[in-house]
Fold:
Amino acid sequence: MNKIFNLLIVTLAGILGVIIGSVITERSNERITQTHRKMDSKIDMLLNLVNLQYVDEVDMDSLVEKAIPKIMEELDPHTAYIEAKDLQMVNDDLEGSFSGIGVQFNIQNDTVMIVDVISGGPSEKLGVLPGDRIVMVNDTSFVGESINNNKVMHKLRGPKGTHVKLGIKRRNSAELLSFDVVRGDVPVNSVDAHFMIQGTTGYVKVGKFGAKTYEEFFNALENLKEMGAKNYIVDLRGNSGGFLESAVYMTNEFLKRGSLIVYTEGKAQRRQDIEADGSGEFQDYPLAVLIDEWSASASEIFAGCMQDNDRAIVVGRRSFGKGLVQRQIPLNDGSAVRLTVARYYTPSGRCIQKPYDNKSDYQQEVYERYVNGELYSQDSVKASADTVKYYTVGRRVVYGGGGIMPDVFVPYDTTFTSPFYNKLVNTSVLYDFSFRYSDNHRDQLYEFADYRKADEFLKRQNLYEAVVEFAKGKNVKSDLPQSQRTKDKVVQMVRAYVLRNIYGENAFYSVYYEKDPVVQEAINRMKK
Structure:
């Protein structure tokens, strides 16, 4: 905790500088206040005119709710208005916990199927099990075509201490089971998995940067060290970001004292530097960071910091390019605005943010990378780079231009794809088959001591033939002979999904990434 406290002091010092600066620039603030008054009076006048003199009755609250998003659309792509009814759910994902019953579910055949019961949650304490079907909620039938994810979330989540009665159908029970669940705090993990991936290499998959991510991340590193890890892979692929503070604490674990982590700067916010305090326990361990086109914001801060300090090798594909700082500001009716107030800059001075003059083009930019070949060819990546050169602490040249350019480019792997494989994935047939298989073999799979032994059992089964037969019943047919790589990939995905249902995320990612080219490249580079 001392490390967090020391780093917090550094961060607060930067914030204090902004506060002091705002006192010095009092005249500037007076001008801002006058602008607010002009805008308020004009908007208030317009709304009053509509309310008092418009020909028809108007729902003024609804009008305001529709007008605010229109104003937000004129700003950058990440400034957003959050309605009061949505705010709690939006915040829950990053806060580290929410109030609910503590299950992961999937809707199969118009029925809510419990995929996993969250450890430490209310349902686990009552004996709810993976594979259970929720067929009644509060003595009312809860099945049918009208059931969707939003309805399930609305029914199962709720204020802490409130009750929800579940009617559950279990495979080996002829009777309908009844559970009176008291909603409570349910942990939301942001470190998806950690395990030894090869030899002395420890692997950590970070899904988002939430309030408790640093604590989870540090514990994962310590656990891997106890298991013999001598080097680490931090996988940020698909991680869209989150809290800056979590990224700062995580990078601090790998850096020498005084190393610049990131700085922010904006029109109303002068430059704030955040530096490492030197308390990190993993400063001397070799490190690789994995990124892709969906790694954004805090992920790019972490990767850019490691790259600019020559602390890690960055492997994968160009990151998303989101370098705008949002501040969430509550409004008086319980809603909030996430307002962009500054930009992130990596230690070398690179602005992470890609251009957003045309919002339509901005949203389509990642898709354009597919079209122009950037995900498949390193030459196309170079064509997308900024021409301005920046320098790491070791005087290596790096480029900006929107996102972090990896040190080692690994193209998107398409060697296993085929029309049949794409149909299996895109129609969820592969997932459906895996869930049913794990459900039908749950008792048998539970008997194995660990997931590796269960995986050896799965490798001996005729999974590919079973998938093909199951797919026929879903009108997904394999008309052409499939390559061995397609067959191997189908089986690998089924093994991963089945093991996730029985043993959790570590088992899933261990199998899912067993031949992943980005992971293999990172391991090979660290060996050198």
Remarks:
- The longest strand covers residues 336-345.
